[in-house]
Amino acid sequence: SAVISQKPSRDICQRGTSLTIQCQVDSQVTMMFWYRQQPGQSLTLIATANQGSEATYESGFVIDKFPISRPNLTFSTLTVSNMSPEDSSIYLCSVDDIQETQYFGPGTRLLVL
Amino acid sequence: AQSVTQLGSHVSVSEGALVLLRCNYSSSVPPYLFWYVQYPNQGLQLLLKYTSAATLVKGINGFEAEFKKSETSFHLTKPSAHMSDAAEYFCAVSESGANSKLTFGKGITLSVRP
Q1: Helix, strand, or coil (residue A78)
Q2: Distance between CA A88 and CA B88 in Å, rounded?
């Protein structure tokens, strides 16, 4: 399975600021996904990131709030813009391997004050 | 549309007892089904998956799950719980194979009593 790393692992931010989360994979993958896990909740898909094209966002998530980059087949970033305390969550990236399975990174724990 | 139902939010068992975590799904096409585990302060780890092969699927750490189409279920079991099994367990469904988004259930917290 792919080995996925995320940076930062955790952060505490002030409201109104933005944070960019990085996701690095040790092999080339076609699809990368970004999820949000709010406190005590399950995972919700934010968007799917394809290399060389714009990300596809799920209902309730917009590019202005969560811009995503996918410059190559091993890397993606998610920015949480103009943060509010409601954005306090764990943000996870995942990749889809050729065996039709998603593997997840360790997550970025974000607290917005 | 697809959905996953995990009834209850917390299951507590004694060490050595049977673990049974329930998952029911809804899907308009044959589903692919997954169980993930999340240990405290960690990401999600794949336990096992069903992708239309054998209906009884064996995973890591002694867990297994059985796909029952007639019951639209994919319950997770382990014959004998260990203290190290205490974690959050998520059932997830996707409607096709590669490159398909996952829909997760709410998750179940498993506690193991000494």
Answers
A1: strand
A2: 19
Is residue B6 a contact partner of residue B74, using CB atoms and an 8 Å limit? no
Per-residue pLDDT of chain B (114 residues; tens, 9 = 90+): 789 999 889 999 999 999 999 999 998 777 899 999 999 888 899 999 998 778 899 999 999 999 999 999 999 999 999 999 999 999 999 876 545 788 999 999 999 999
For residue B54, CA distances in Å to A8, B36, B50 come to 40, 19, 8
Check if B98 contacts A (Cβ < 8 Å): yes
Answer whether B43 sits within 8 Å of A104, measured CB to CB. Answer: yes
Q: Which residues contact B39 (CB under 8 A, 6 or more apart)?
A: B45, B87, B88
What kind and span of H or E run contains B13? Answer: strand B10-14
Interface with chain B: mutation pick from A97, A102, A103, A110, highest number of B CBs within 10 Å: A102
Instruction: Kindly report the nearest CA distance between residue B32 and chain A, in angstroms.
Output: 9
